[in-house]
Structures are given as C-alpha cells and as structure tokens.
Write a structure and sequence with these properties.
The structure is a single chain. This protein is mainly alpha-helical. Among the domains are: about 45 residues; about 170 residues, no CATH class; about 60 residues, Orthogonal Bundle (Helix Hairpins). The protein is about 65% helix and about 0% strand. It contains 19 helices and 2 strands. The chain has a two-stranded antiparallel ribbon. A hairpin with a 4-residue loop joins strand 1 and strand 2. Helix 1 packs antiparallel against helix 2, helix 10 runs antiparallel to helix 11 and helix 13 crosses helix 15. The N terminus and C terminus are likely disordered.
Length: about 450
C-alpha cells in the first residue's frame, strides 16, 4: 500500500489550486484501481513463462535421458522400437500425432520393457528384410531340391547349401524377433503389446512352420556324408514348408511400397509381379517332379522321362543346371503366354498330368492378370473420361449461348488450367480420408 499513498501525495502536490474532497476521492480511486490491475497481472501472468523441464524427458518418446554413451545408444534403440510417425501404416491406426504420442506412453507404461511396436522403424526395416529373405528362401530351397543333382551315393555339400544355410540362420533370427514384436488385432484394430499374448499368438500361427523350415537337416546330413537318398528327400522337403510365408511377404512388400506411393494400383502391380516370378519358378521346378522323385526314392534317374531335353541318355546329372532350368522355364512361359505345348514332348502319364496342371494354372493366372490390367486401365483413365464428359457439356452450353470465339478460347483455357485434364486426383482424395475410411478403402480394394 506504500505505492498507493505515494501516488496520492504526488497527485495532491501537483495541484496548486484548492482541491475539493470529491476530486481527491476520485483520483485516489483511479490510482488504487491501477495498482490492483498491475498487481493481478503480476500475480497471474508470471507463471505462464516458458517452463524448463528438469525430469530429463527430452522428447515425445517419454524416455529418460541418462549420461553416458551406452545409455544414449540404448535410449536410441528403444526410441526406434516405439511407434514411429513415419511408418506407412501409422496414421491408418491413429488419427493424429498426439494419438501417436499417447500410444508411445501406453507402450512405455503398460507394455513390457523390451517389446518392439509393430509400427516402429525397427519393425519396418526387419519386415522389409524378411520379405526378401522369405522370397529368396522359397526360391533357393526349390532350386536345390529339383536342380542340384549328382550321381547316387556321391552327394556332397553344394554351394547352394551354404547359401541356404545363411538364410536358415536369418529365418531362425526371425523367430526370435516374432516373440518380441507386437501384433494388430484386425477385428478391433487394437495393437497388442503384452508378451504373453504375443507368444501365444505366434505359437498358434507360424511357429511350427517357421521352426521346421529353418532347421538345416539337409546340410547336416550332407556334412556327415549320409548316402541315404530317401532321408535326403525328406530333409530337402522341410524348407519347402516356408512356402505359406508368401502371404506375409506380399503384405510386407505392400507396406514397403507405401513409402513411395499411396496408390493401390502400385500395390496390386507389385504383388502381381512377385506372384508371377515365384509361380513361374515353382512351375519350372514342377516340370522335373517325376524324375526327381524317382532319383531320391530309388537312387536313379529313369530313362523314360525328360524327352524334351533331347538328350540320348536323359540323365539329369549329365546336363548342367543352367541348361535344364532354361528349358524348363521356356516350357512354363510358353504355357503362360499360350504359345502351345508342342515343345513339351512327353509320353508318360505323370508328365502329361503335370503339364496339364501347369497349363490350367497358367491360364487362370493370365485371366487374373487380364482382369487386373482392365481394372488398372479403368481406374487410371476414369478421371480423364469424366473430364472429357464435362468438357462436352461445357461446349454444348457455349454453343447454345452463342459465345464468341475469344470467350470460348478463354473458357477452354480456364477448364484446362483448373482440372489439368483430370476430373479428380486419387492421391489427393485419399489424403483427405480419415484413418477408418482409409483402412476401409484399402480393404475393399
């Protein structure tokens, strides 16, 4: 109150004439109100200054900062295991960045400590690598079974066996990762981050196939110089159990494609290209199924098969791998593109049935390809078609109203600039969709 009385004394001294009591009261009241306003502002506005946090939470990751190089590296790895803003599927599950931050907090306080979020950068990188590993594993395992053949009782470790052993190791590492990566419940669009549920979910679905397909039984048998071809046959069949992983590999390829584009047309084209390459390779191996089974079961190559190789003895181990693969691929591609099967000379019922199945599958695949291309064409050019329909309406209107030629030219230029010969743009429309409608659009397409 000292400032209040000082202000009153200051105002009274400034008056040389006689001041009435009413004027003094008014002046005092004004000064008192100014003092109160300044006090309230000082009391309530000062706490809104920028707050410097002392808890060590340096970012939205909610992870404490600790001194030391190894502590910083561990914190960086844990940040990469959290849900990432730049994962292609993040905003299909979360509506905004604050929801992403809330999910990080939920993972930190509700989930286990060292789990990997399925929408993290670590998960994205690992699943992209495993998509390539799974596809190469399927390719090499069938190539080893059907094309790497030697005379009976002389089987040894081949170079392809060593490459396949490396992929077995990566697949075994993938099993460990799958026990530590959360999953999404598709029915409720909920991300599970409980270790017990993750382990049970993986054990029910992929564990047995993954474990059986990554066991290097064939490599061990060849390393121990076991000559029983029937045991080798079952050992080489084990890696083929990874074939159902083609489903997850295609999903991972789709997620990787989302990094570069959001158009479902590119998703379909990439998936179709992978399917074509893998199925063409499998059909090439399937061509040699009867002689290969006889080789592993009876220990010899029967002379009645493989007439299309045009070899006098028709022994597969006397023809190099590249030549056999090239001729088998030529027969398969001829079946896919409908050029006929006259080059496939076969007299045995087994080979005729196998080639008939290849022709049937290739015909169905090409019908699917034709439908996909028609869908892509209609989707790509539907916007252009609607634009030209709009321009036809504009032309009819200008003709009916008898627009002068300069005005018609200006109207055409305006519509061309406004629409760029496209009635709508798919990418722009998809960016405007919310998370739920975007998931519904991807599921429907």
């Amino acid at each position: 109150m000292s400032s209040y009385f000082n202000a009153v004394i200051f105002c009274t001294k400034r008056k040389k004439e006689k001041i009435s009591s009413l004027y003094i009261l008014k002046t005092s009241l004004c000064v008192y109100l100014l003092y109160k306003i300044f006090s309230i502002r000082r009391k309530y506005m000062m706490p809104f200054k920028k707050h410097h946090c002392q808890l060590g939470l340096g970012s939205d990751s909610m992870l404490l900062k600790k001194p030391g190089l190894w502590a910083n590296l561990y914190r960086s790895m844990r940040k990469m295991c959290q849900v990432a803003q730049y994962h292609p599927d993040t905003y299909d599950h979360f509506r905004s960045y604050p929801a992403v931050v809330a999910e990080r907090q939920r993972q930190l306080y509700e989930g286990d400590k060292n789990l990997i979020h399925p929408l993290s950068l670590v998960s994205l990188c690992w699943h992209t690598i495993m998509a390539f590993v799974n596809l190469m594993h399927m390719f090499i395992s069938t190539l080893r079974l059907f094309f790497v053949l030697t005379p009976p009782r002389t089987q040894t470790v081949h170079a392809i066996d060593k490459v396949l052993l490396a992929f077995h190791a990566l697949c075994f590492l993938d099993i460990l990762f799958n026990f530590n990566i959360g999953y999404t419940e598709k029915e409720y669009s909920h991300i599970v981050m409980k270790r017990r549920k993750i382990v049970c979910h993986y054990l029910r679905r992929w564990f047995l196939l993954d474990l059986a397909s990554c066991l290097p039984v064939a490599f061990v048998l060849l390393y121990l110089d076991l000559k029983d071809t029937q045991c080798l046959l079952f050992a080489h069949i084990l890696p083929l159990l990874r074939t159902p992983r083609l489903y997850t590999a295609l999903i991972d390829v789709k997620v990787f494609t989302k990094i570069f584009t959001r158009s479902y047309i590119w998703y379909g084209m990439m998936r179709h290209a992978v399917l074509f390459v893998m199925t063409a390779h499998w059909c090439t191996c399937f061509v040699y199924l009867p002689p290969v089974l006889c080789y592993y079961w009876y220990g010899k190559i029967p002379w009645k098969y493989n007439r299309f190789l045009k070899d006098p003895d028709r022994d597969l181990w006397n023809i190099d791998l590249q030549n056999r693969y090239r001729k088998g691929m030529f027969i398969v591609l001829s079946s896919f593109f409908g050029t006929g099967f006259s080059m496939f000379r076969a007299s045995e019922p087994e080979e005729i049935v196998i080639h008939a199945l290849i022709i049937l599958y290739s015909a169905m695949f090409m019908v699917y390809t034709l439908v996909l291309l028609l869908k892509v064409y209609m989707t790509t050019y539907s916007s252009t078609v609607r634009y030209h329909e709009l321009m036809n309406q504009v032309e009819e209107y200008m003709t009916y109203k008898q627009f002068p030629a300069p005005l018609k030219k200006r109207v055409r230029a305006f519509y061309n600039y406004r629409y760029q010969e496209l009635y709508y743009r798919e990418e722009t429309a998809l960016d405007c969709l919310s998370g739920f409608f975007h998931i519904f659009h991807i599921t429907a397409t």
